[in-house]
Amino acid sequence: MLLTYRIFAKKFGAAVSVISGALLATLPAFVLISRTGSPSIMALFLIILSIVLVGEIMLSNHEKTSIKFLALIFKIILGIVLALLVYCPGGIYFTLVFILIGALHPKSRLLLLRTRPWKIIMGTLFGLIILSPLIITIFTQLMHGGWGLTRTLLCLDSSLSLANIREVLLQISSFELGFNSNILTPIFSIPMLILALIGLVKLITDFFAARSYLILTLLIVSLALAFLNPAQSFWLIIPLILLVIIAVASLIDMWFTVFPKNIVARAVAVILLVIMSAELVWTNISANILALNYSRGLVYAYSQEFPALANYAKQHPNQKFQLVTSDSQVGFYQLFAESHTNLSVISSGKFSDNQQPDGQLIVLATAGNNPSPIPRQIVTNPQSRQSVLLRVY
Fold it and tell me: How far apart are CA 189 and CA 158, in angstroms?
């Protein structure tokens, strides 16, 4: 929220900046990605941070010498951030977007030409240092005839299809709350989509501005990645929210231009802005509450086995347990067992009914292994399906 405030504070003022932060912080898709700790949230953070750094560099170029020293720091940090973005699947395309716009747009190109070469080399060097582990890993993998990591980073594991395009369009503009490709849909409400369209028109009419170059290119790249793989549609959050804020700022400017000295008209504009912003934020909050409580796709998308196990272990601190889980989850629960010395973990493939457990035997529902004895206790949740979490023997 603070980063989005920083993006718009200089250009559009504090009021629009606060609105931008509130809209992004309450956006259902963004909230879900943040709450689940998905790697996607780091990709979005790096994109926002890159935009903030670019803006700070452009502004500090016209300031006094003490501020120009900060510009050097910002350039070094920008090189590091763009390098970190390459670690995210599809992030390399956004890194290239920032580099190409910096080289092609007249204003940013002039800034680069005025920058001393050693400063550019320093930022590039820091970026290459950050990228060196990834470069070595990719090179080693290619030497052994594999390029799975390269395909993942370039998002080449899927292809463009009409089904993908249709799914992405539904993710953006669906009228029904859902959970598709790990994204809480719709990404935007209808009023926010209308504002985004207004912002898009504004950018097209002001096409030669560096801001328009950047946001439109981010939007095109985000759409391309989403059409290739709908699970990558989270990239759309940033360019769309930028379009919404540009629309809000443009509407305010148009209104104040029509009524430059009419205090009553300006007051009406402020009141309408507050009402509209409150309505958009409340719509986002309501969508979050409804999705968490009533969206079947979201409710069944996440397993409740781990909190149930943690709660059961907390209630029986002196009891020894042997946990049976699926082969794919053994590593995860072994991390949990490191902080619980009374718990040991075994995969369902290695467990047999004849094996004597060390203490109580806990079998996860997803382990796919049901020992023959009748369990002494079954831990469940209130859901109508997939309600069994743990079986204790």
Answer: 28
Residue 228 CA to residue 250 CA, distance in Å, equals 33
pLDDT computed for residue 164 by the predictor:
83
Token pair in block for residue 46: 């790096």
Dist. CA 195–CA 273, nearest whole Å: 13
Beta strands in the chain (DSSP E): 178-180, 183-185, 321-325, 343-347, 360-364, 377-380, 388-392
Residue 221 is predicted with a pLDDT of 92
Tokens of 107: 């204003």
CA distance 261 to 256: 8
For residue 42, with 0-12 CB atoms within 10 Å meaning exposed, 13-18 middle and 19 or more buried, which class applies?
middle
> How far is Cα 234 from Cα 379, in angstroms, rounded to an integer?
35
Q: Quick check: helix, strand or coil at residue 137?
A: helix
Q: Which tokens go with 35? A: 């709450």
Amino acid identity, residue 368?
Answer: G
Cis peptide before 186 (omega within 30 of 0): yes
Write the DSSP string, 8-50: HHHHH-HHHHHHHHHHHHH-HHHHHHHHTT-HHHHHHHHHHHH
Q: Are strands 388-392 and 360-364 parallel, antiparallel or unpaired?
A: antiparallel
To the nearest 10°, the Cα dihedral for 45, 51, 52, 53?
110
Rg of the Cα trace of the chain? 26
How far apart CA 135 and CA 48 sit, in angstroms, is: 25
Q: What is the DSSP letter of 260?
A: S
CA nearest to 142, candidates 131, 154, 151, 132? 151
Contact 246, 199 (CB under 8 A): yes
Per run of 10 residues, the mean pLDDT along the chain (length 393 residues) is: 54 70 83 78 87 77 58 81 89 89 77 74 82 86 79 81 84 75 78 88 83 87 89 88 86 80 79 85 84 70 77 81 82 82 78 68 76 76 73 81
> In whole angstroms, what is the distance from residue 223 CA to residue 218 CA?
9
Q: What is the DSSP letter of 230?
A: G
Give the residue among 358, 3, 82, 29 at the shortest CA–CA distance from 226.
29
Q: Give whole-number Cα distances, 388 to 303, 306, 341, 347, 363, in Å.
A: 11, 12, 26, 19, 11
